[in-house]
Specification:
Layout (H helix, E strand, L loop, with lengths): L4 E8 L3 H10 L5 E4 L16 E2 L8 H11 L6 H21 L5 E4 L2 E4 L12 E2 L5 H14 L4 E4 L2 E8 L11 E8 L5 E11 L20 H8 L4 E2 L4 E8 L12 H4 L3 E3 L19 H15 L4 E4 L5 H7 L1 H9 L9 E10 L2 E3 L11 E3 L4 E2 L11 H17 L25 H18 L3 E2 L1 H24 L4 H22 L8 E2 L15 E2 L8
Parallel strand pairs: 1-2, 1-10, 2-7, 10-17, 16-18, 19-20
Antiparallel strand pairs: 3-6, 4-5, 8-9, 9-10, 11-16, 11-21, 12-15, 13-14, 14-15
């Protein structure tokens, strides 16, 4: 087995947060980026909408802050919101300098930004690249990383567990010093050491049966940080995107909220609008309200979906503004200019995560987190549309600057190589596939858009039983990618259920029939879980 690999900075994940951090951190030292699949496969790649940022004469930081606070259900940290919003313009300029071609349009004095509008926003402030913003950002950053000699990007390298001084037996201090990593090509587990490790692993959408997320979104960063003793917060707040394409061959294709920002209406199978009866903002209400309204309409009517109607905008506009969505729908026999678009809600975004400060710093020295994996206090109980890419670029920049300050730790530590012991090759991979499927169906049926404590408790019992099976399998057989994913998925599912049971009120994305309103008897508080409270190790 190879000796440990040493870097100044270690990045786990290759979306916007990980890549941007790596580019900044490389100014201070060597960087390794680990990604468990192909480098481009991340939630960033699939982000259609854009980056929310104040940029017009009719908009202000205070308006963006207020919109964020309104969406967040009383749980946003206002100082964090203000810092991220006010840092936004500088980070947009950074992305543009790197080569991201945000859309523009002719103005009175030349080209100006073509800003979009999405639900919950009181002004147009969404920087976008047509309807494929994330794809453009991912490609530009990957090009910059590949041209940087101080950055090494390793595909098919899957983080297994963080390495901490506490687990190594150093009682006087605890610190993250790297992680164990599965080289998926060779099957070997390697040691990567670093002075600073950034979690940029994205979210956990694959914990649900229906999701807009890619297959890599299995909650790895949250699970690894939690096992290392780092607190996580607000995992009950899973945002369900209201409009994923409903089609038997469309696995997880998102229909961007920007359609509703440009005038698309939601109608039922009879062609009637139903959102104005729920919220005066109609189609531009925040996502939690729209998703619950769709869920209620589907259950009321018995029809499997609802529909987006944007036919009034015409083919020329739709091809220019939404070329990716237009062509994708056309592949499934749907012409947006002539047909209604069938849609259903699907798990989309994790608003909670690993607890960090405004610089991405976790409670464990040497460990940082940025992007969807982190809980900074920006989103509160419900993320405002397109604030996620804004948070990712702002926090990753701040984390890179903060982790570059000062001298690295002087202590030299000996990290043991991975010991497989007597573990055998897996003999029944069908067990892994079955458990994966059961978790996702369980979460969809029992821990979805509308919850009850009875269903949550049932989910918790079954997850504990599954945890025992997975733990036995994990320690008995040699590691493979699917087993690592399953282990993380089971833990994150349990954290979501435990957090949901802790919150005895309905707030933001967490709607529970037992407590259909917010608890106004005390100030809103985060749901914090630590390892000692977890049912799964």
């Amino acid at each position: 087995m190879e000796s440990p690999k040493q870097f100044d900075f270690l990045v786990i994940g290759s979306g916007l947060a990980g890549l941007f951090y790596a580019l900044e951190a490389s100014k201070a030292g060597t960087v390794a980026i680990l990604t468990k699949g192909a480098a481009r496969e991340s939630n960033t790649l699939h982000a259609q909408g854009g980056v929310a940022c104040v940029a017009s004469a009719t908009d202000t930081f205070d308006l963006h802050i207020q919109d964020t606070l309104n969406a967040g259900g009383g749980l946003c940290k206002e100082a964090v919101v203000r810092r991220i919003v006010e840092d936004g313009p500088d980070r947009i300029r950074d992305l543009a300098r790197l080569g991201v071609r945000f859309a523009t349009r002719p103005g009175e004095e030349g080209e100006i930004w073509d800003l979009g509008k999405e639900g919950g926003h009181s002004r147009r402030r969404i920087f976008h690249v047509d309807d494929a913003t994330g794809k453009e950002i991912e490609q530009v950053l990957l090009q910059a990383v590949s041209a940087n000699p101080r950055i090494q990007l390793l595909e098919e390298h899957q983080a297994v567990d963080l390495i901490t001084l506490g687990k190594l037996g150093y009682s006087s201090e605890n610190r993250c010093v790297g992680c164990y990593v599965l080289d998926r090509a060779s099957g070997r587990v390697e040691v990567f050491c670093a002075h600073h490790t950034l979690l940029a692993t994205g979210g956990c959408g694959k914990v649900y049966l229906y999701t807009s997320n890619p297959d890599v979104a299995t909650g790895d960063g949250v699970a690894m940080a939690f096992r290392a003793g780092v607190p996580v917060a607000n995992m009950e707040f899973i945002q369900f995107h209201p409009t994923c394409l409903y089609h038997p061959r469309a696995k997880s294709f998102l229909i961007s909220e920007a359609l509703r920002g440009e005038g698309a209406l939601l109608v039922n199978h009879q062609g009637d609008r139903f959102l104005p009866d729920v919220d005066p903002r109609g189609e531009l209400a925040p996502r939690d309200i729209v998703a619950r309204a769709i869920d209620a309409e589907i259950k009321r009517s018995g029809h499997p979906c609802v529909y987006l109607d944007i036919r009034q905008k015409g083919k020329e506009f739709l091809l220019g503004r939404f070329p990716t969505i237009y062509s994708a729908c056309l592949r499934y026999g749907i012409d947006m200019a002539a047909d209604l678009i069938p849609v259903v809600p699907a798990a989309h975004y994790q608003c909670g995560g690993v607890v960090t400060d405004i610089d991405g710093r976790t409670e464990l020295p040497g460990l940082w987190a940025a992007g969807e994996v982190a809980c900074t206090g920006l989103h509160g109980a419900n993320r405002l549309a397109s604030n996620s890419l804004l948070e990712a670029v702002v926090i990753s920049y701040r984390a890179a600057r903060a982790s570059s300050i000062g001298k690295p730790p002087s202590r030299k530590v000996t990290i043991p190589l991975w010991d497989e012991g007597s573990a055998a090759d897996p003999d029944e991979l069908v067990v892994v596939a079955h458990n994966w499927r059961e978790i996702r169906e369980l979460m969809w049926d029992y821990v979805g858009i509308v919850r009850t404590r009875k269903r949550l408790r049932r989910a918790g019992v079954r997850l504990r039983n599954l945890a025992r099976e997975i733990r036995e399998y994990y320690w008995s057989y040699r590691l493979n990618a699917d087993l690592i994913d399953l282990r993380n998925l089971a833990l994150v599912a349990s954290l979501i259920v435990d957090s949901a049971l802790e919150r005895r009120e309905s707030r933001g994305l967490h709607y529970i029939l037992d407590f259909p309103g917010p608890d106004d008897t005390r100030p809103p508080a985060d749901t914090i879980l630590r390892f000692s409270e977890a049912p799964i190790d």
